[in-house]
Design a protein that fits this description.
Mean pLDDT: 90
Distance between the termini: 54 Å
Strand order of the largest sheet: 2-3-1-4
Strand content: 35-45%
Order of helices and strands: EHEEHHEEEEHEEEHHEE
Structural class: alpha+beta
Shape: globular
Length: 261
């Protein structure tokens, strides 16, 4: 493994604009081609930001950079920087190499995500188009935050991305992306309240669509998103427990639920 440390000197008043630019342009392009973001930090004085990226080798880093420079999002990023003006005063990068030997313990690095198959009274399915995956629509969702249950995370993510609240019915499947270490849990639920509202800087389109097996290609173009959506159309539900240990305490148990009128 190698690590690229990218350091940006910024003006404190530019912090919010820089964060939005990083989230919408730099981060999705790196992730799309296989890089992993270890973390990103800002100094107490908010005048320096450090991002640490992980690559399997220098060859992978060079290959990713080659893809990015040819990408449409990279061109959009250059145009956005011109529009925003000076986002940072200066930047530099260096490379770090792990001191861990192949036989040392390496803690696992995985991301747990949730997504929701949500229907309205007409049986239409809630779909979003994300800014960094604009080639396809998909079910809303995102990463589970530290200390959150899966149930809390899916409620929060759907509200943030679409502006609506939902009632959950059950879990329809678990899906793993071995390449980027993402484990995704899919919930099925029903619309409760709210108005469809895209999330600025994240979702550019939010709709309820008359989705079927026959027309799914018109909305969802990525095979991995299609498979989990099709599974949720005719679900087999599984239970889920959230607990603490030492001592054991059951925080919540989630089984199939039906809306109460």
């Amino acid at each position: 493994m190698i690590y690229r440390r990218k350091t940006y000197k910024i003006k404190p008043e530019k912090l919010e604009a820089f964060n939005a630019f990083f989230h919408n342009y730099l981060y999705p392009n790196q992730m799309k081609y296989g890089a992993k973001l270890v973390g990103r930090w800002v100094t107490e004085t908010e005048d320096e930001i450090v991002a640490l990226w992980e690559y399997t080798s220098m060859e992978q880093y060079e290959e990713i950079e080659s893809h990015i420079k040819k990408s449409e999002l990279h061109q959009k990023a250059k145009e956005k920087r011109i529009e925003l003006g000076e986002l940072f005063v200066e930047s530099h990068q260096d490379f770090l190499y792990s001191t861990v030997t192949p036989f040392s313990y390496h803690p696992p690095k995985h991301v747990v995500a949730v997504t929701g198959f949500i229907t309205n009274e007409q049986g239409e399915v809630l779909l979003v188009r994300n800014d960094h995956r604009s080639d396809t629509m998909e079910m809303p969702g995102g990463q589970v935050e530290e200390g959150e249950t899966l149930e809390q995370a899916i409620h929060r993510e759907i509200l943030e991305e679409t502006g609506i609240s939902v009632i959950l019915i059950g879990i329809t499947g678990i899906y793993q992306n071995i390449t980027n270490g993402v484990l995704c849990v899919v919930f099925r639920g029903e619309f409760l309240s709210g108005e469809l509202t895209p999330a600025e800087g994240e979702t550019i389109e939010v709709i309820f669509a008359p989705l079927t097996k026959e027309n799914i290609n018109q909305f969802i173009t990525r095979p991995n998103f299609q498979s989990r959506t099709l599974d949720a159309m005719e679900p087999s539900y599984i239970p889920y427990d959230a607990c603490t240990i030492l001592p054991f305490e059951l925080v919540s148990r989630f089984e199939v639920k039906r809306k109460e009128y």
